[in-house]
Amino acid sequence: MKIITLSENRAEETSGGLLAEFGLSILIEMDECKVLFDTGQKISAVYNAAILGVDLSDIDKIVLSHGHFDHTGGLKSVLEQTGEIEVIAHPDVFSEKYATKRKTKPIGIPYSKEMLEELGARFKLTENPTEIGNATVTGQIERTNDFEQIDRNLYVQKGDDLCRDDVLDEQGIVLKTDEGLFVILGCSHRGMINTIEQAKKITGEDRIYGVVGGTHLISADIIQMEKTIQALRKYDIKKIGVSHCTGILAEAKLSTEFGDRFFLNIAGSVIEF
What we know:
Elements: E1 2-7, E2 25-29, E3 34-37, H1 44-51, E4 61-63, H2 69-72, H3 75-82, E5 85-89, E6 97-98, H4 113-118, E7 121-125, E8 130-132, E9 135-137, E10 155-158, E11 161-164, E12 173-177, E13 180-185, H5 192-203, E14 208-214, H6 222-235, E15 239-243, H7 248-258, E16 262-264, E17 270-272
Parallel strand pairs: 3-4, 4-5, 5-7, 13-14, 14-15, 15-16
Antiparallel strand pairs: 1-2, 1-17, 2-3, 6-10, 8-9, 9-12, 10-11, 12-13
């Protein structure tokens, strides 16, 4: 099993010159199939895939963590490489999403469902967990703790009303390894620890080997940060690779707490099992 980060806010230094771009895209290579989790904001996933020697026409499925532009904006360019392919997402993924109550900042998927289908996307929209080989898409994530709060500046259009967005479409991917679960996060709007707990619930496995991806700790207060660290210690987690929406302060805190178990998961990062 191999995890290759194709797009992130930062990029490894390589001879080919990887592109850094605000967003996230992670390729999961398993014996039985290849899954692309998110597609970055625009062109970086496709651009970096070529430099890293990744053939996107070989991937079997695409999974979208949620419907924000920085995780889905690259879908058009990816589909131009893959052709017809199944895309797994939550039914709310195409909701109209905004970062202000005045609707002056749309942050949803920048393409229509019809346009993406014309390019070959075959959407499987479900809020339930979905198994893909040795991986499981979490489906809709339950909020089971009182310290991970959803951003108060996120809104979604529901009929004639603009409402606070609970980001119900957020989901992650869980890999089963001999040493426990490896959880891959998109942006963790519904909470990094909530996502890990969802992974435990749907797999029946309590051991957590590692976690990578967007943690959304950039907006965490002291209480959330401390309780997140307490939970990660309790899991006895072995690898913590953070990306995208973690924030420098949270990165520094996690690095101090977890030492060589911590790393920055950026464009060009490769994890092998």
